[in-house]
């Protein structure tokens, strides 16, 4: 540890920061939320779904998210569910990339501050 010159580390920080920003630029539509696929009973007395779990109807997809403190649920079709699944994946990617950018930024500015202090000690 500490074997690399500070200037090299500062350059490495800057390079990594640009890479993470490029990752950020590639993120697609995103949304917080969860997607659920449910099999349901229809409630009709003669339908086998009432007695056999394997004969239940569906899957029915439901997208749930929070907005202004309220939980909102949206029914989706099997065709549109993947769009929301993808948005959820993108959201997690966005959050993790942002967290890495923040951690790297803290590290980088700490090094820059050390560099500035050693260049012109007070
Ligand atoms: Zn049924």
Explain this structure.
The chain is an alpha+beta fold and 122 residues long. The protein contains two helices and three strands, in the order αβββα. It has one domain (7-119). The protein has helices at 6-25, 81-119, and strands at residues 34-40, 57-67, 70-76. A hairpin with a 2-residue loop joins strand 2 (57-67) and strand 3 (70-76). Helix 1 (6-25) runs antiparallel to helix 2. The longest helix has 39 residues, at 81-119. The relative contact order is 0.19. The mean pLDDT is 92. Residues 41-42, 44, 47, 49, 57 line the site of zinc ion (ZN). The site of zinc ion has 6 residues, from loops.
Major sheet strand order:
1-2-3
In percent, how helical is the residue content?
40-55%
How many β-strand stretches?
3
| Main beta sheet strand tally, sense and closure | 3 strands, antiparallel
Q: Identify the bound ligands.
A: zinc ion
List the helices and strands and how they pair.
Elements: H1 6-25, E1 34-40, E2 57-67, E3 70-76, H2 81-119
Structure at a glance:
With 122 residues, the protein is α+β, with helices and mostly antiparallel strands. Helix content is 48%, strand content 20%. The radius of gyration is 25 Å and the shape is rod-shaped.
Question: What keyword list fits this structure?
Answer:
single chain, 122 residues, alpha+beta, 3-stranded antiparallel sheet, 3 strands, 20% strand, binds zinc ion
